[in-house]
Amino acid sequence: MNYEHQLNTDLTPQYITKLRDEFNDALRVLSLPKHPTYLYEPISYVFSGEGKRLRPILLYITGDSLGATEKDLKYAGIAVELLHNFTLVHDDIMDQDDLRHGQHTIHKKWDESTAILAGDGIYVMSLSMIAKVQNHPLEVIGTFNDAALIVCEGQAYDKQYEYDTNITLDEYLIMVEKKTGWLIGLCTELGGILGNQQLETIQSLKKFGTKLGTAFQIQDDMLEITANEKNMGKSLGSDLTRGKQTILSILAREKNQKDWQNLNSNILEIDRSIKIQKEFLEANGILKKADQMIQSYIDQAIDTLKYIPDPCNSRLLQFTKLILNRDH
Fold it and tell me: How many independent structural domains does the chain possess?
């Protein structure tokens, strides 16, 4: 990967695209054995698609702004993306989703056993990659492993809450913070560690990423119902249709539990369910309220930037504006 330091350059969409392309290329050329094909062919398949790569990009932008070395940013960025993809492969099995990054999920293309093993392999690869970091290696590895377990806790809550219509908004937000916010917080936190920052700055960076990640997941819940499958590159409406607890289902129950339950109990076709659910959510102000919550978390993230030095804080602000202005 041939990154050029851009400390004095605005984060244009073109620059983000450049970083994304370079991380995509790095993942495609990971040195993998050819045999056994049962393991390595599905792993290669995972990285043949075009992911958003927001996590390694965020880590790179943070660490680059703070003077981290090129090699460390490369290894750490690939490691967090491998960790993220490990969770996606296993999540797709648990959620029985058919599409990811615009292509069939592993369990759909092959089978569940293949997908479980491929996910395990990707996780081990992430550990090998993070172990290559040279600056503060023990702190980096410990932080990485701690975050990986927290993400698993978030997924455990997600499954535990799946059909529980008594789950509160506060419980949902804890789940989201662990499942999505913590991994994005890991990216900014590692950027601070690799950039030799003081503990107070690293903690502020972690808080920024965690709040931003929580906003990102709430937005993702909204896009499940407001976006289209082509843009999202994954199955839509599956969470609400299966009765999973999302920001939309929880707010809808709080607004009018009886009507929401009646509406969902009478829908059989997924495409029709998305249309009917969206109409209900719009009519009852649910989408507007969820959007206000997203803005609240963005505001909390931005508030931490005053504790983060230039030029990192200004670049993180630009990054926030770019990624949250999305339709997928």
Answer: 1
* Domain assignment present for 22: yes
The predicted-structure confidence for 55-75, as pLDDT tens digits, reads as follows 999 999 999 999 999 999 999
CA–CA gap between residue 53 and residue 61 (Å, rounded): 12
CA distance 169 to 251: 8
Residues whose CB is less than 8 angstroms from the CB of residue 96 and which lie 6 or more positions away in sequence, other chains included: 107, 238
**Which residue(s) pair with 104 in the sheet?**
99
Separation between Cα atoms, residue 30 and residue 32, nearest integer Å: 6
* CA–CA gap between residue 264 and residue 267 (Å, rounded): 5
pLDDT of 2: 38
Q: Which of 164, 286, 173 is nearest to 224 (CA)?
A: 286
Q: Tell me if the bond preceding 36 is cis, omega within 30° of 0.
A: yes
DSSP single-letter state for residue 100: E
Residue 221 sits in which domain range? Answer: 13-324
CATH number, residue 196: 1.10.600.10
